[in-house]
Design brief:
Strand order of the largest sheet: 6-5-14-15-16-13-17-20
Radius of gyration: 22 Å
Distance between the termini: 32 Å
Number of helices: 13
Bound molecules: adenosine-5-diphosphoribose, P-hydroxybenzoic acid
Number of strands: 20
Structural class: alpha+beta
């Protein structure tokens, strides 16, 4: 078997790459270790930047987002009982975000790709990359455990297999540059059957820790609580979760968060990570395979999509004009945006979480940061600009046109 690009992983990065390549007449094959059902049902974050929404719509996979996504024109930031709104359109010249769960984006992309006859192999095992430094790289895998190995030869391999996939390992096992920060805290995420808690997302700092009020549907809500990164989910009864959510989001107006059955709960640890080596020979890393952000800035999915936009444009130039100039600049262009998203995610995380290791002085600075932010037009504009999404800096390259 031969194809232009073997894509490893059918998350947002892999599926979007396959989608953009096919729109430009470039063949690809996706190898994915999970089943389609699992991909479509795994709960992840759900805030799409304006640029992500525009790209999905411009490339024909935005119909459901248009009808079912919730357009949000701002967020609330809360410190103690003081809650302030940041208005995006007035601060950014009209930008908004859309709350639409990641697995729904994946359903839309999978549907489009499968209707288009895409080659997506689910539930594959032992995916390995080979000869990445040659111009004849290839990938081997077994379709089912114990079956004989299959080989796909290609021109390029796209490592879209997330943080724990084999591609990042291949890149980092020899010379590469990595940056990492681990946090002492994690997020306990719940899905609860109750009414919408707020018309827009609430990011709240409380002395007990951070809380986030988000939404999924009018009757299903997504809430998060800062917990210790090693916390045991079994110690978090539904009652304890509701007590903390209510306490941390209280603004003293006598209105209490409405509780209801909790249908899922889990704890995820938080990390900031960048592998600056995003290309090794003809293997490219994109999305979570190359970087992880803490979820506070809602950047994970959006960053995966912007990596792919750059990579797809590079591949387009290579297949249409025979030039690798843009592919050679993939890492440089992508890292500009990645580091800015890292900066913003780190800023939001530090601003909003309660760190018991902070001195009294540092806690005062944190509080003052919040007061400055909500009282300064310039600071609010900066937050709104980053939250709704920074542009890709193409530099000397031309910005792509999707029609
Ligand atoms: N072989 C094949 N597929 C693999 C392998 C493997 N050995 N290892 C991982 N995968 C698949 C995973 O099953 C997953 O479907 O790669 C995919 C990677 O998807 P994501 O982890 O979602 O990463 P990415 O596409 O870069 O999207 C990043 O998704 O998880 C969120 O928070 C993350 O929002 C961010 C976004
Ligand atoms: C979510 O809805 O899951 C969500 C929203 C905003 C974030 C993170 C997660 O910053």
């Amino acid at each position: 078997m031969h194809t232009n690009v073997v894509i490893i992983g059918a998350g947002p990065a892999g599926l979007m790459l396959s989608h953009l390549l096919s729109q430009n007449g470039i063949d690809s094959i996706i190898l994915e270790k999970r089943s389609r059902k699992e991909i479509e049902e795994t709960v992840r974050a759900g805030v799409l930047e304006q640029g992500t929404v525009d790209l999905l719509k411009e490339t024909g996979v935005g119909t459901r987002i248009e009808h079912e996504g919730f357009e949000h024109e701002g967020i609330y930031l809360q410190f103690g009982q003081k809650r302030e709104r940041i208005d995006f359109p007035s601060l950014t010249g009209g930008k908004k975000v859309v709350v639409y769960p990641q697995h729904e984006v994946l359903k839309d992309l999978l549907k489009a790709r499968i209707e288009d006859g895409a080659a997506i192999h689910f539930e594959v095992n032992e995916v390995k990359t080979h000869a990445i430094h040659s111009n004849k790289p290839y990938v081997t895998y077994t379709p089912v455990k114990g079956a004989s190995e299959e080989t796909i030869t290609c021109d390029y391999i796209a490592g879209c297999d997330g943080f724990h996939g084999p591609c990042r390992e291949t890149v980092t096992e020899s010379d590469c540059s990595e940056y990492e920060k681990l946090y002492d805290y994690g997020w306990l995420g719940v899905l609860a059957e109750t009414e919408v808690a707020s018309d827009e997302l609430v990011y709240a700092n409380h002395e007990n820790g951070f809380a986030l009020l988000s939404t999924r549907t009018p009757t299903l809500q997504r809430f998060y609580l800062q917990v210790d990164r090693k916390d045991d989910i079994n110690l978090w009864s539904d009652d304890r979760i509701w007590t903390e959510l209510k306490k941390r989001s209280d603004i003293g107006d006598g209105k209490e968060l409405k509780d209801g059955p909790i249908v899922s709960k889990n704890i995820v640890s938080m990390r900031s990570y960048v592998c600056e080596t995003m290309r090794k020979g003809n293997l490219f890393l994109a999305g979570d395979a190359a970087h992880i952000v803490p979820p506070t800035g809602a950047k994970g999915l959006n960053l995966a999509i912007s990596d792919i936009q750059i990579l797809a444009e590079g591949l387009k130039e290579r297949y249409h004009n025979g030039s690798e100039n843009l592919l050679d600049r993939y890492e440089e262009i992508a890292l500009q945006r990645i580091w800015k998203a890292q900066r913003f995610s780190s800023f939001m995380t530090t601003l909003l979480h309660t760190d018991v290791k902070k001195t009294k002085f540092e806690r005062k600075i944190q509080e003052s940061e919040f007061h400055y932010l909500v009282s300064s037009e310039a600071a609010k504009r900066s937050l709104a600009e980053n939250y709704t999404g920074l542009p890709i800096e193409w530099g000397r390259a031309l910005a792509p046109q999707y029609s």
